Amino acid sequence: MKRIAITTLGCKVNQFESAAFASAFAERGCTLVPFHSEAEVYVINTCTVTSRAGQQSRQLVRRALQHPGARVVVTGCYAQMAPETVLDMAEQPVVIVGNGNKHLLVDAALSERQSDLVMLMGQIRRKTEILDLPVRRFPGRTRAWLRIQDGCDNFCSYCIVPFTRGRSRSLPLAGVLRQAGVFAAEGYRELVVTGINVGKYGLDLAEGETIYSLLDRLCAEFPDIRLRLSSIEPTEVNDRLLDIARGRANFMPHFHIPLQSGDDQVLTRMNRRYGRTEFAAMIRRVHAALPDAAIGCDVLAGFPGETDQEADNTLQLLTDLPVSYLHVFPYSRRPGTLAAASPHQLPGPVKEARVSRLRTLDTAKRLAFQERQQGRVHRVLVERRDRKSGLLQGFSENYLPLRFPGGPDRLHRVVPVRFDEVRDGQPFGCIVEELLEEKGESR
Fold first, then answer.
1. Taking the CB of the first residue and of the last residue of the chain, which one, N or C, has fewer CB atoms within 10 A?
2. C-alpha 220: how far from chain center
């Protein structure tokens, strides 16, 4: 019985894939242990979307290599883009698995045949089918990620993902429903529908399905499970999606929509396929249809050649729009992308200053959204208990991270919570016991 330690960086697709590894190792009779523990096998599922993610990936590989008797398996986007760097770090046998061959990872990790090197790379751009990576459980999670798609065909000029993940590939409908059914049987109360570019779901298949028909079907077939969409491109937000959000009680009113820049010239240089006017109209349409929905945006600050005025245009656009929160990132130069070759790279202090003021806006947006929701009762999926305060924690339908008192019998259940106050930027509330009793959920 081998001990397996898995650590994961990056996106929800990576997290789904690591859960698939964990499920397969468990089926083989292995024991999963924390990454800081002693193990016979260490798996590092890496990321390279930013330079910091690449640095963290290298650090984790080095940490695993400090166990000379263990087998070290490196996979993910950093391994896909820089396998030679991984090799240079290792003075012991190592297994490197490209993104297109992750279905072979468990066999390679458990193989009795040791060699100086196992490289399962392949050419990711030639992959035309998504990998079948079934998951039984997400260790330690109340919500499960439901991966329906992989890869991206957009080739934004700053993004390395199309080179590390390959072309857009969708999981056939039967596979999606089968995986959702497994999660339902395991007792999960919420599924986060995810992928690299989920809005392109089904376009590479001959089944006639789209992201919209799939979401509607999932809501209908699993009415007792909450469905949340991880993110969707601005050009893919339409009336069909809003109709589903309004018409299906188990579709959560939460949209994460990447903006990246609020200036038309910068958007063109980024190879984004919309302008600030279209983006603003779309956000206002979402807000009008679902006034209480959480609307989050990704923003990239300090893109090569971004002028002060262009940066101001982004700040002003977001200030004026009814968005709920921002995920702000400094531009990170990724070798192999078009933007990396630009001679107009901005100095670090300029990027940091622009990131800082956008994050200040994020704080204000979050507080304003919370204040609008205060005093209301929200349906909260209870995920954990805070060790320090002893309070329960969970997310509302519209992604408010609420904390509230309650017993252990509330864990992993959806309970009505009245949002009472904000302290130090954190929403607090209490369970509305009479509503629990009305619905027969008091036990």
1. C
2. 24
